[in-house]
Automatic annotation (TrEMBL):
Its main location: membrane. This is Cobalt/nickel transport protein. It is found in: Cell membrane. GO terms for cellular component: plasma membrane. Pfam families: PDGLE. Residues 8-109 form the PDGLE domain. It comes from the Bacteria. The chain crosses the membrane at residues 86-107. Keywords: Cell membrane, Membrane, Transmembrane, Transmembrane helix.
Length: 127
């Protein structure tokens, strides 16, 4: 990667971290479209429990990943909601960046190894 692309890459990472860590707290309180569409037709109380009506969410089972460290847009064990959401976003960005960077590093185009005699001569310099 050239030196000119590093500031762009780091700037993009910084913007993503800022959006995930700070701006995500001001997003919709119901960000998951699938969950909200499954609740249509039901009456839901303040705790998110279904109290009446008829909707597909009534037949839902517990998810296998509901106990994972980053479930429900937060970090398990962090009691402050805003901090939990921001930290979850930052961890998600860092994990995605690391995974994507690692995959790009593995898939990069490698040039064949050169012998010392194959190196191009430097014009105008005497060694």
């Amino acid at each position: 990667m050239s030196r000119r692309s590093w500031p762009f890459l780091l700037g993009g990472l910084l913007v993503a971290l800022l959006l995930a860590g700070v701006v995500s707290n001001y997003a919709s309180p119901h960000p998951d479209g699938l969950d909200s569409s499954l609740l249509k037709g039901c009456t839901v109380n303040a705790q998110g429990e279904i109290t009446g009506g008829s909707c597909p969410a009534q037949r839902a089972r517990n998810h296998e990943l509901s106990d994972s460290p980053l479930a429900d847009y937060g970090v398990r064990g962090v009691s402050n909601g805003a901090l939990s959401t921001g930290l979850s976003g930052v961890l998600g960005v860092l994990l995605t960046f690391a995974l994507g960077g690692g995959l790009f590093w593995l898939a990069r185009r490698r040039s064949p190894a050169r012998d010392a005699g194959d190196a191009p001569a430097r014009a105008g310099r005497a060694d």
